[in-house]
UniProtKB/TrEMBL annotation:
Name this protein carries in UniProt: ABC-type multidrug transport system fused ATPase/permease subunit
Phylogenetic classification of the source organism: Bacteria, Bacillati, Actinomycetota, Actinomycetes, Streptosporangiales
Annotated ranges, domain ABC transmembrane type-1: 46-334
Transmembrane annotation, as ranges: 45-70, 82-103, 161-182, 188-208, 277-296
Subcellular localization(s) per the UniProt record: Cell membrane
GO molecular function: ABC-type transporter activity; ATP binding; ATP hydrolysis activity; ATPase-coupled lipid transmembrane transporter activity
Length: 617
């Protein structure tokens, strides 16, 4: 079972090139992060920079002031005289310490303004990029995985990367200040301090590569754990899980996936811990060497006792700052690997962005023509539709029927402009839809999908979402659409009417049945009110009364609009102007109900199975 859960062998056995590329890409990755900071929080970012520099300057000044104090305290003379001479220096050191504390507090205040603004800007860019691509891109596995890496990991680590950049800046200022103090005391101390950083720097980069490589191994495992977590903890699947007595199965599946995930996490964690331990041990030895050299310099008379004491303080300050610097750099390097996923997705989404502009779609097309239309989903080698030839005239009601998987929904999405043909052409009044402005094309289409979206808003918003910018100050169109869809009864039963929140995920929310949701979806489609209506199994979850009301509405609007109806219930399409039967992605039969029964073909066979009636009867 475990073999089915781990990544393919061709991914595990070779070094991950992404982590190697990330080091080379660090400058390129840093630039857009800095631009995002500049665009979303320029003022607090500048304040933080100024305060960090001020804190660093305070550290350097404090070290030099400490050296002066030690000179006074270690000078010849009586103790009271030496202490009196050191009082001004001590007061200066105290003032510098207070100044640095105030600067650090002010940095936290500025961070409280910067980080939420940055988070909001990063989310907005991601959501805008995701909303700007075509529907077909969501069927592309690489795009979809990249989107979820950017959303689930990239956004979080981008937020943390900014925080660690601020920490890194502060630590760097501290190291620089300590180095400056050491340089004043004796220039030889500075290169020794730099050499002490190299072991931990190596460990930082190495451990980060191990961590990112492990993440890429575990991304599929984590997704499966999330799916099983939903089955175990979410309200919607709870009833069926219990009805099927599937609780032991779900728990067993979790244990198998979690076992592999635990082993992978342990292996990656141990490898990172070993690298970090080696780096810290080597760094400790290097720091001991710095202190030993300082002792030799004091013994040889190269440095005064007061300066040596200050140097010890400076080394300890530098060591603390270096530790903070190493931690921030370690986390920042890891986070930039995830930030790379965020920026890669934005670039990919930008390249895939649906084009804008073009010829405006006809307001009320007189004729829709499909000639040799085929469609293949991204990543698939088998076309979902083959050589579709079909003409739909304005005011007609066209029914698409066929068995599951015959291509009905795919064809409906092509007609709606959500997909573009892989082969052949779809034309509105002779205009190829690929040359039409996508926004104007979408504006002419009403789509009621088989599984409508359940917006977590109130009932009014759920219907108005069909055309949210439609003027309807007194809700006349809203109420008329609800009445035509038999959704007014649903709203009348809600505790707060149109203002009732339709989501049990929030306090005070109300739950609807599948049929009630479908009625609201039909009302949403009617409220949208376009010349081309596409109804994909609109009455599947409805009771007989509601289904009758919906089909009565369809008959009322027939002739005013072009209707494409998809359904498995052949008794519901008897009055359609033309019935198109699809089989394995091809048009197998088409004609009126009577004409298709007279053919004694596949339609007649399906009709007989559903009704028990044959064409002769």
């Amino acid at each position: 079972m475990e073999d089915d859960l781990v990544a393919p062998y061709w991914h595990l056995d070779r070094p991950d090139p992404a982590s190697r590329r990330t080091l080379r890409r660090l400058p390129a990755l840093t630039a857009p992060v800095l631009r995002l900071i500049w665009d979303s929080g320029r003022r607090p970012a500048l304040v933080i920079l100024a305060l960090q520099l001020a804190a660093g300057a305070a550290t350097a000044s404090g070290l030099l002031a400490t050296a002066s104090v030690l000179d006074d305290l270690l000078a010849e003379g009586a103790a009271p005289e030496r202490l009196a001479a050191a009082v001004p220096g001590l007061a200066l050191v105290a003032a510098i310490v207070a100044l640095r504390a105030a600067a650090e507090a002010a940095v936290e205040l500025a961070r409280a303004r910067l980080e939420p603004a940055l988070r909001r800007a990063a989310e907005e860019r991601l959501f805008a990029a995701a909303l700007g691509v075509r529907l077909a891109d969501f069927d592309d596995v690489d795009f979809y995985d990249g989107l979820h890496r950017a959303r689930d990991r990239g956004l979080f680590h981008l937020d943390r990367a900014v925080a660690n950049t601020i920490d890194l800046l502060g630590a760097a200022c501290g190291v620089t200040a300590a180095a400056a103090g050491l340089a004043v005391l004796h220039p030889l101390l500075v290169p020794l301090l730099v050499l002490s950083v190299i072991p931990e720097g190596w460990a930082v980069l190495r451990a980060a590569r191990h961590g990112y490589g492990g993440m890429r191994e575990m991304v599929t495992l984590n997704r499966r754990v999330d799916m099983l977590a939903d089955l175990a903890t979410e309200r919607e699947p709870a009833a069926e899980v219990r009805a099927c007595q599937a609780q032991p199965y779900v728990l067993d599946e979790y244990r198998q996936v979690a076992n592999v995930l635990q082993k992978t996490e342990t292996r990656v964690g141990l490898s990172m811990a070993r690298v970090r331990a080696a780096g810290r041990a080597a760094g400790g030895l290097a720091m001991a060497g710095v202190l030993a050299v300082l002792g030799l310099m004091l013994h040889s008379g190269w440095i005064a006792l007061a300066a040596a004491g200050t140097a010890v303080i400076a080394v300890r300050v530098a060591a603390t700052a270096l530790k903070q610097l190493a931690q921030a750099a370690n986390q920042l390097f890891e986070q930039f690997m995830y930030v790379a996923d965020y920026h890669d997705f934005l670039a990919d989404a930008h390249a895939r962005r649906a084009p804008s502009g073009g010829t405006a779609a006809p307001r009320s097309p007189e004729r829709l023509t499909l000639h040799g239309v085929g469609f293949t989903y991204p990543g698939s080698s088998h076309p979902a539709l083959h050589d579709i030839d079909l003409t739909i005239h304005a005011g007609q009601t066209i029914a698409l029927v066929g068995e599951n998987g015959s291509g009905k929904t795919t064809l409906a999405r092509l007609l709606a402009g959500l997909y573009h043909p892989s082969t052949g052409a779809l034309r509105w009044d002779g205009l190829d839809t690929s040359d039409l402005d996508p926004a104007s094309l979408a504006d002419r289409v009403v789509l009621v999908p088989q599984h409508p979206l359940r917006w977590p808003h109130d009932a009014r918003t759920n219907v108005r979402m069909g055309r949210h910018d439609r003027p309807d100050p007194h809700d006349h169109a809203l109420r008329e659409s609800a009445a035509l869809a038999a959704a007014d009864d649903v709203v009348a039963e809600l505790p707060n009417g149109w203002r009732t929140l339709l989501s049990k995920q929030f306090r005070g929310g109300h739950e609807l049945s599948a049929g009630q949701w479908q009625r609201l979806a039909v009302a949403r489609g009617l409220f949208r009110d376009g010349p081309l209506l596409i109804w994909d199994e609109p009455t599947a979850p409805l009771d007989a009364k509601a289904e009758y009301a919906v089909y009565e509405t369809l008959r009322k609007i027939a002739g005013e609009r072009t209707v494409v109806l998809i359904t498995h219930r052949l008794t519901s399409v008897r009055h359609a102007d033309r019935i198109v039967l699809l089989h394995r992605g091809r048009v197998a039969e088409q004609g009126t109900h009577e004409e298709l029964l007279a053919l004694h073909g596949r339609y007649a066979e399906l009709y007989a199975l559903q009704t028990g009636k044959t064409a002769s009867r």
